[in-house]
Amino acid sequence: MVRHKAKVNREVCLSCGGCIAICNQDAIRMVEGKAYVNDSACIGCGICINFCPVGAIEKVDAV
Amino acid sequence: MKYDVVVVGGGPAGSVTARFAAEGGAKVLVIERRKEIGVPVLCGEGISKKIDSWGMLDSRNWISREMDGARIYSPNKTMVKLSAEKAGNETGYVIHRDLFDQELARKAMRAGAEYMMNTKAVGLIKEDGRIKGVKAMHFNEKLEIEADIVVGADGVESNVGKWAGIDTTLKPNDIESCLQYTLANVDCEDPFTDFFLGKKIAPGGYIWVFPKGKDVANVGIGVLGSLSRPGLAKKLLDDFIKSDPRLRKGQPLRVLAGAVPVSLPIKTVKDNLILVGDAARQVDPLTGGGLTHCLEVGKIAGEVVAEAVNEQNFSEEFLMKYERMWKERIGKKLERNYKVKELMLDLDDKTLDKFADSLKDYNFDEFSTKGLIKALVKKHPSLFVKLIPLVKG
After folding, report:
1. Which site among A38, B33, B238, B279 is 20 to 30 Å from B190 CA-CA?
2. Verdict on whether the full-model pTM lies above 0.90
3. Residues 9-28 (A) with a CB less than 8 A from some CB of B
4. Interface-testing mutation among B137, B232, B238, B260, with chain A (most A C-beta atoms within 10 A)
5. Which pLDDT does position B386 carry in this prediction?
6. A23-29 own/partner pairs: CB under 8 Å, 24+ apart
7. Are B102 and B58 in contact (CB under 8 A)?
8. Domain boundary pick from B219, B240, B261
9. How is domain A4-61 classified at the CATH fold level?
10. What is the CATH number of the domain that holds B162?
11. Best of A8, A29, A38, A54 to disrupt the B interface by mutation (most B CBs within 10 Å)?
12. pLDDT tens digits, residue range B205-260?
């Protein structure tokens, strides 16, 4: 089974912080002014992906 | 570095809290991660004129345009108008949030509060389970700021609350996914704030047009998180702008994304730490408005904090006075409007059109969401039995 993770495209992110507030795993924080997902905490639920107003977060295969 | 109070975040809630704490005699430090107070603007920039009577701002340079009223459009564009002539003079302003925030910060500074910019809180200092202050990065320098009271005014992300063990995580149905353009070259002659409702227009939210001038307007959208899809807010807003003759030729001076908490009130005191503003979810869950609350609640917070400092009592029990007082002031409204928000989600577009049709010539006696609900109850007693308890008292 492939496990998924959320990944933020820094070029698209407008730093609203919504993904940080909505993540129930506390897996996202601001790093150098943009949202950043901590891979080891992300469970791939996709809540932040659906929330993002500009579609800056993608589902990627976990490595 | 030792202070009585450290405030994390120099937005309206943080600055007002800092001001009243400092005026009450506390030694206050505000840390702000940004490089300029109020910048970038993250807001629709609408506010009620009722703030005038609170006397918290002297200058008027933060007012961009005075409004004559509000217009609400149902899905089929039936308009309900709340105007000053019909509902008294308590309408609103469209403001410059950067200047507004800076005015509040200047007031806090005048009262003696210190500010540090480009300073990011990274954690709490804890000793034997007790909160002793805030760990921060100031430029590339690590700081330990000791304080008897910590105030989390760090916005929707609410990291300070999480560090203290308060559950501030917002469920997808308790947060709005927002996008806004400030558009120039638009045609907004009328000084009215406009709200557009409908499941296809903005599911679980609305589109707003707040004119900052005759040819400049903030045009934004909120979509409820549980109904959002990747990039949906942007797509729906772009579609709306293309479809509106007033806005079609508009060009963006600014774009911003936002996240607005629309939840029930949460716990706002933990040991010697309190939360204020968006971090405390002190936002009207129906309108998404929070600016007036920041002023009301910030004053209460600052005064209680100053009292705690003067009595050297930093217990949760003492600071709970703040929570009781702010809930007394706005708690009922937040709970009522949360219920209305939930009821609204069940209404289809046809019902909204019907409601709008019945209210289009109504003379509102109150310029507020409560006034709107009252009118709806009057017009649709059978449909709105559920709403009646919400407007009593």
Report:
1. B238
2. yes
3. 14-24, 26
4. B232
5. 66
6. A23/A47, A23/A48, A23/B169, A24/B169, A26/B162, A26/B169, A29/B159
7. no
8. B261
9. Alpha-Beta Plaits (3.30.70)
10. 3.50.50.60
11. A54
12. 999 999 999 999 999 999 999 999 999 999 999 999 999 999 999 999 999 999 99
